[in-house]
Amino acid sequence: MKTAKSKLKTSRRKSAPAKAKGDKWILRLYVAGQTSRAVAAFKNLKSVCEEQLKGNYRIEVIDLLKKPQLGRDDQILAIPTLVRKLPVPMRRIIGDLSNTERLLVGLDLKKHT
Amino acid sequence: MKKRENLLLRRHGLQKSPTCIQGFDEITGGGLPKGRPTLVCGGAGCGKTLFAIEFLVRGAMQCDEPGAFFSFEETEKELAANVASLGFDLNDLVRRKKIWVEHIHLERVENEQSGEYDLEGLFIRIHHAIESVGAKRVVLDTLESLFSGLPNPLILRAELRRLLNWLKAKNVTTILTAERGEGALTRQGMEEYVSDCVILLDHRVDNQSSIRRMRVVKYRGSTHGTNEYPFLIDQDGFSVLPVTSLGLNYSSSPERISTGIPRLDTMLTGKGYFRCSTVLVSGTAGTGKTSIAAQFVEAACKRGERVLFFTFEESPSQLTRNMRSIGINLEPWVKKGLLQFHASRPTLYGLETHLTTIIKLIEKFEPAIVILDPINAFVAGDNQSDVKAMMLRLVDYLKMKRITAFFTNLTSSGENIEVTDVYISSLIDTWLLLRDIEIGGERNRGLYVLKSRGMAHSNQIREFRLTDHGIELLDVYVGTEGVLTGSARLSQEMKDEAEMASRQQEIARKQIGLKHKREAMEAQIVLLRSEFEADEMEALKAIGIDKERNEHFRHAKEKMAASRKGDVAEKTRVARKTGTRRILP
Known about the structure:
Chain A is α+β, with helices and mostly antiparallel strands and about 110 residues long.
């Protein structure tokens, strides 16, 4: 697996604006190592969130290589998988999130056309 | 074990992972290809999951190879409950880290796709499981569900190929199960990814009874049985019986075993049936076929042999009760463990299943004698050729196992009784025929030996009676009006007795006559003797007178010579001699 140039920290604190009022959106991104696809997914997600949910979201990145048991607990097969934990209902989007249109639909930020 | 593996390796050139499933390792020459994926496909309910899970459980318990089971359809709980019916404690194996069970949940509606993805998540989960229990065997059941759960088949196909290569590189023996598709082995063409071994399971219904069959479609780098083999799923799990691979190379035995009926033994040159032979008793309803079987069973149990009795029409308790009425008590033998009954309705399941059940029970009980009562029960509709094929395989199997087989067959009246419904007469070594003989308003049973290979058997018809102390064979009278049995035979016997008595009287009469004759003769002898004695006396008297006269004459001559003083001695002697000659004769 190729390691991407940009750093991808797998902590919960990263990229959480931590506003008192915020955290309405909790998004969890499952990756397996620092692959280019993982990095791309994170970038794509980040830019969409900044655009649509500025200050109102938190992204958690989970590396299954480090915590393989989470793959079973959260039923992950495809990598990368984005899970919208909040708001309910839970949503899943798989892929590198390069298709912004599909990502928005998947996150319920845009209706199906 | 090591030696056996080496032998297998030399013979098949491929290492195999034993499934420990009864019969399966025999058809595949040792099991599934070790370290490679195997595809198990078939329609719904054909036993794919069961086969796979048994492979894992037996591997963990018997071959010390832990396994990981990935279920795309059933949850861990459901799986454990399903295999508990086969006697496997999956939860315990999971606790002891022998088996890893993981449910993979997939629902298409939950997954929106945006951009490219891969299945690295699945890889990580499999890897994690393998590492956790040290798995040597992996099952993916049913991997095809991915196609309905995830978008973009193109990516999936590429990922599947990568997954299988990855599993191969990990050197784990993998089973993939797949649903059978229209016109192809699997719905998603899984067979193109798995090129090493493909096994097809089938569950079909023939004549309203189901038959399970399996076939090794492909096994790269190994020889394997290519036929369709029937298999069973029962409380002991999966079992395959490669009974079609039998031939005519069994050895025969010169040993003879008693039929349990002394006079029937006599009809078979005094010794009974051959051991390992096939005996058929056929006859119309109520002629006593089962009784002959029971008599044979009792004799065998008395010798200490094990008998397996398959009854297809009566329940064991009914059968033992009925046999008790003719003085055959089978119950003690059942209690002693020498006799085992197995009752099932022929319609309960298909022929193949019957055959596999029979063979399985034989393998378990290891009897010396097997009874099937009756074999025509299998005939339903126009399946005679199937029944014949089944009987052929059974007979071959029994001969190979050196088991004496005893079948009964019901012949419907009006038909040619020397033909069985099952047309297996050519398979039979000793064929006893029971028939009704209707005469004088009575129906009696007759028995004869239609054929008995390898012995100069009797050609006589015997009357056959069921008494309260077993079966009795009696002579029958054969006259111009046919054979005489029952009361006709009795009256014939009485007639014979009367005739005998009158003959006795005649003899006595003749003897008396002879005695009288002898007495008359003796009286006559006495008479003659007395007559003779009288004559003799007379004659002697006359002789005496003559002698005296001679003496007188000599005296007179001597006196005369003395007076003449002549020499007359010579003349006197001659006269004396001639005198004696005249008298004596």
